[in-house]
Design brief:
The chain has twelve helices and eight strands. The chain is of the alpha/beta class. It folds into two domains: about 220 residues, Rossmann fold (3-Layer(aba) Sandwich); about 100 residues, Four Helix Bundle (Hemerythrin (Met), subunit A), CATH 1.20.120. The chain is globular and about 55 Å long. The chain starts with a strand and ends in a 9-residue tail after the last helix. It binds guanosine-5'-diphosphate (GDP) and magnesium ion. The site of guanosine-5'-diphosphate (GDP) has 19 residues, from helix 1.
Length: about 375
């Protein structure tokens, strides 16, 4: 769900990469992670099975400076595509501002593509959102495969509305950033039309052109860091908080709650630093809590992870002022249902991997909301 800090002219938006299992969603996010300058993104967090299938979600925060003089924080999520993970997909889709549908171009995947698109439509409708009015772009992924269907055939089957679509190869990265720029543009336009995002200031910054060309230029400059090495980063990175590598590979995990997937181990993006998004988002005072929670997750100690998240969540919410947890959550636009579930998990005696993942997810949300609200105030940070 978008949130806006008018004083800082900062907009936080949530974009979800949706599509059938194995269509290339996680690969797409990894490519974005590799492409965006480190100063403009946090750590990528993946919660996957040993076979690298997305178990809960992938998450990557990206910051785009001065898009028509607003700073845009993108929270990028992927969903697990496997049919039986619909509850997780619904959860991740909650509050999304836009979707990138990653379709698999192979003919044998057409049924899965259609099913996933219908599932997206249904899950959005449950939130009272109609897909045809929702910011959406499509990636025709795996274009490198010789068996790939023609774009015309894919469009006819999957994109009758004619939303912006892109030929992509998530593994090499071709087209991926174009799709991300397009969805960012659509989301900002949508939020602007809903009067959620302030219009551009009347006087543009020196040297900047006005209008859509400017938006394009800003997105290009800030999203594709390595493509323009001559351009220095326009922002100072957040206070340095490089995540220490989480040591040895974690032990095998208990069986999964949902069927059909073998025992899991937390994922590895590079084989060294699989986690870190929660601490990347944490206010200084809660950084250690977030690290403890991530460390416990990586070690398979889900009870400790949940307790650390719960404690950090309480402390984080308290930054909104005195009052009940519910009142603090309300002030920060944190979902009360999520918080209640986190508290329930904290009171349980046994915990599963998805419980701990959920706890980290709620904590990330709280940190994002705090950040948007400008809390804690800079003097105490
Ligand atoms: N040839 C090819 N393989 C791809 C492409 N994108 C993803 N893959 C492969 O497809 C498999 C599933 O990718 P993944 O990103 O995990 O899919 P997800 O389930 O949608 O997250 C992996 O083996 C990827 O390497 C692509 O553009 N071309
Ligand atoms: Mg995946």
């Amino acid at each position: 769900m978008s949130s806006v800090n008018l004083v800082a002219r900062e907009v936080a938006v949530k974009i979800v990469f949706y599509g059938p299992g194995l269509s290339g969603k996680t690969s797409t996010l990894r490519k974005v992670f590799e492409t965006v300058r480190p100063a403009h993104r946090g750590e990528m967090m993946s919660i996957a099975t040993e076979g690298d299938r997305t178990l809960f979600f992938d998450f990557l925060p990206v910051k785009v400076e001065r898009v028509n003089d607003c700073t845009v924080r993108l929270a990028l999520y992927t969903v697990p595509g496997q049919v039986f993970y619909n509850a997780t997909r619904k959860l991740v889709l909650q509050g999304a501002d836009g979707v990138v549908f990653v379709a698999d171009s192979q003919p044998e995947m057409m049924d899965a593509n259609r099913e996933s698109l219908a599932n997206l439509e249904e899950n959005l409708l449950e939130q009272g959102i109609r897909l045809e009015r929702f910011p959406l772009v499509v990636q025709w992924n795996k274009r490198d495969l010789p068996s790939a269907l023609s774009v015309e055939a894919l469009r006819e089957a999957l994109n009758p509305r004619g939303v912006p679509d892109f030929e992509t190869e998530a593994v090499s990265g071709r087209g991926v950033m174009d799709a991300l720029k397009a969805i960012t543009r659509l989301v900002i336009q949508d939020l602007r039309a809903k009067k959620i995002v302030p219009p551009p200031r009347v006087v543009p910054p020196p040297g900047a052109a006005s209008g859509r060309g400017n938006l394009e230029a800003q997105l290009s400059q800030h999203l594709v860091g390595r493509a323009s090495p001559a351009t220095p980063p326009a922002m100072a990175p957040r206070p340095s908080r490089s995540m220490p590598a989480i040591g040895a590979p974690p032990p095998a995990q208990p069986p999964l709650p949902e069927p059909g997937v073998p025992a899991t181990a937390p994922p590895s993006l590079t084989g060294q630093r699989p986690l870190g998004a929660t601490s990347a988002l944490a206010p200084s005072d809660l950084f250690d809590h977030a690290r403890a929670a991530e460390g416990a997750f990586a070690a398979g100690d889900y009870a400790t992870c949940i307790q650390a998240c719960l404690d950090a969540a309480r402390r984080g919410l308290a930054l909104a002022g005195e009052g009940s947890l519910a009142a603090q959550a309300y002030l920060l636009h944190v979902d009360g249902g999520d918080l209640l579930k986190l508290q329930t998990l904290g009171a349980r005696s046994s915990h599963r991997v998805d419980d701990a993942a959920f706890a980290l997810y709620v904590l990330m949300h709280i940190f994002t909301r705090l950040h948007t609200a400008g809390l804690p105030a800079p003097a105490t940070e």
